[in-house]
Amino acid sequence: MKKKQHYRYIDQAKKMIDQEQGTVLKDWGGKLPVALVWPNSYRVGMSSLALHIVYRLFNDEPDVVCERVFFGDQQAPHHDEPILSIESQRRLDEFAVVAFTISYEMDYFNVVQMLRRAGFPILAEERDESWPLLIAGGPAVYTNPEPMAAIFDAIAIGEAEGIVPPLVDALWEVSDAPRHEAYERLAQVDGLYVPASHQGDQPISRVWIKDIETRPTVTQIYTDRTEFGDRTLVEIARGCGRGCRFCMAGYVYRPMREMHLDTVLSLARHGLKHRDRIGLVSAAVSDHSWIDQIAIELRRMGARLTASSMRTDPISEPLIKGLAESGNQTLTIAPEAGSVRMRKVINKPQADDQIMHAVDLAAKYNFPQLKMYFMVGQPTETEADVEAIAQLALAARAIFPRNMAINATPYVPKSHTAFQWSAMMPVEVLENRIKYLQDRLNPNGVTVRSDSPAWATVEGVLARGDRRLGRVLARMRKINLREWLRALEAEGLSQDEFLRERDVTEKLPWDSVTTGVSKAFFSWDLRRALRDDLTDACPPAGCLKCNACDEEWALRPNYEDVLGPNMGAYGDNFIPLQV
To answer: What residue ranges in 174-321 does DSSP mark as E strands?
Structure first.
């Protein structure tokens, strides 16, 4: 029976490859084999540009063969089904290195399930040099590596473009070395956190690249079996200088770095050879300096547009018009809070009239659906603030005549933000406030969706947890709330100790790493939040206030002063990796 299941998976993997464009197939001879693991389904993983860029970075190295591994819809549900790579259908233990990219804390459960199914000892201390090295990267572990520190041999802190090339050199040197020697060498790689050898006196600093045009982040593998299979995704900017106090990504990817207009258009021209739709990706697409020109020029090229996110202060009407003409069914905006006061607390000062202007544009351009994102349970939130969400949604409903939905997501405090010390709101309060919104809005034609508050608290524990959680995860045989609470109790832990409010003077688990922005800046900004004071967004140049920039970057001349209007580094020289 096992052989039949094994062959069935191999057949499925080969069919996937046949349906892909851009897959890299290399002979293993004389190469370092790296398994690139996404601990979720193929459909979800192939929707992530992060996976595409890491896959390209490893395979750009001539002495590396990198193959993808997924967990989920392409794997049979049997517990004895092998975890195999897509490209050559090999087991994880046949690789020298197993590199996980983890964007979401809740995928930690899948990491453990994958390792167990692959026959790996879960904890790093139980594996010797006969096992592949396990490395993790991605925003979840980059910002707080401690919950995974007992499981992985090394964790990448920062951006892959700056870490992968020197990491490959180190991996070649230690692939067969005793573990203690491997750890010593890996610890010498900038941005690599090696838990077993880290002394804790000096935090590991993140690695970031100053010029995102040197390696454009763009769709590498095309497949219809993914959420965005009908488009080429292009990262037009990285980071955000707005300083929304809830947003981890906005802080840890500072400073904002833009792709020049010429480069965006060049990448789009290549993308249009594969798909007629271009997906613009960044923390806030509408903040790009050239967004109006990008939208207008892409439409002139015949491209259909999509955008990952946008703000309303201000909103780009050419972009909205381009999205409508491209056949997008939904316009999504994210006020995040209903009241002006709460928007000051979270430092997202979108005025009501700016939000309503975006709703007007959604109606003007005949979008079939309007979606609005809010968070429930943010620091200092009161019932009056929840009522303000309802009132804002009803005001939008009066303007927008078609389908309308809001997401009322439980707020989870994250590390490396101004709210990293804040308590998470109790489950019962979150449930009551979400139910209130449902009762107020559903009868008025506004659908209210929300994530589970109970599972949000689990995310809250993992987001701000410490190294003890690795053993909790290792205990779990099933993924459910009862098993989670049982495993916590078995390790003498409770959720409350991780969800509580923390003093700004206490040592935090994630102090083992620094993502650029200083702790002093966060504590200063938290005090401003509690006074309902706004903090200015990052200026174009010349600021060293939060410490995310170095002096060379902060005091750099403007693009146009140095390179003129045609500074795109790649221009028409961009060549997609296809082997």
So the answer is: 192-193, 204-205, 231-235, 237-238, 257-258, 277-281, 304-307
Helices (H), 19-152: 42-45, 49-60, 108-117, 139-143
3-state helix, strand, coil in the chain (%, to 5): 40, 15, 45
Average pLDDT of the residues in 517-526: 96
Tokens of 85: 């790579």
Tokens of 57: 């970075």
- Strand-pairing partners, residue 35, are 67, 98
Query: Residue 26 and residue 21: Cα distance in Å, rounded?
Result: 15
**Residue 195 Cα to chain centre, angstroms:** 23
Q: How far apart are CA 579 and CA 572, in angstroms?
A: 20
Element (H, E) at 475: helix 469-475
Hey, is 147 helix, strand or coil? helix
Report residue 161 as tokens.
């473009």
Which residues make beta-bridge pairs with 333?
372
Q: What is the DSSP letter of 416?
A: S
Tracing tokens 């997401």 back to the chain, one arrives at 407
The neighbouring-strand residues paired with 232 are 278
For residue range 107-127, what is the model confidence (pLDDT) as tens digits? 999 999 999 999 999 999 999
Q: Is the dihedral of CA 412, 413, 416, 418 positive or negative?
A: positive
Q: Cα–Cα distance between 218 and 298 in angstroms, integer?
A: 16
What amino acid occupies position 206? R
| DSSP designation for 218 | B
User: C-alpha angle with apex 273: 58 to 297, nearest 5 degrees?
Assistant: 105
DSSP H helices in 506-576 = 519-530, 551-554, 559-563
Q: What's the chain's average pLDDT? A: 92
Q: What is residue 240's three-state secondary structure?
A: coil
Report pLDDT for 372: 97
Give residue-wise pLDDT tens across range 168-204.
999 999 988 999 999 999 999 999 999 999 987 799 9
Largest CA distance in the chain: 68
**DSSP result, 280-309:** EESS-GGGSTTHHHHHHHHHHTT-EEEES-
Token readout for 562 is 């140095």
- Sign, Cα dihedral of 506, 154, 221, 77: negative
pLDDT value at residue 576: 41
3-class DSSP assignment, residue 64: strand
Q: Is the pTM of this model over 0.85?
A: yes
Beta bridge partners of 100: 37, 136
| DSSP β-bridge partners for residue 514 | 205
pLDDT digit string, tens, across residues 536-570:
998 876 688 899 998 888 877 764 443 333 333 33
Per residue in 427-477, pLDDT (tens digit) is 999 999 999 999 999 999 999 999 999 999 999 999 999 999 999 999 999
**Where do the domains of the chain lie, and which CATH numbers do they carry?**
2-205 (3.40.50), 230-327+543-567 (3.30.750.210)
Cα separation of 325 and 43, whole Å?
Answer: 27
Tokens coding 82: 């092998």
Q: Which amino acid is at 494?
A: S
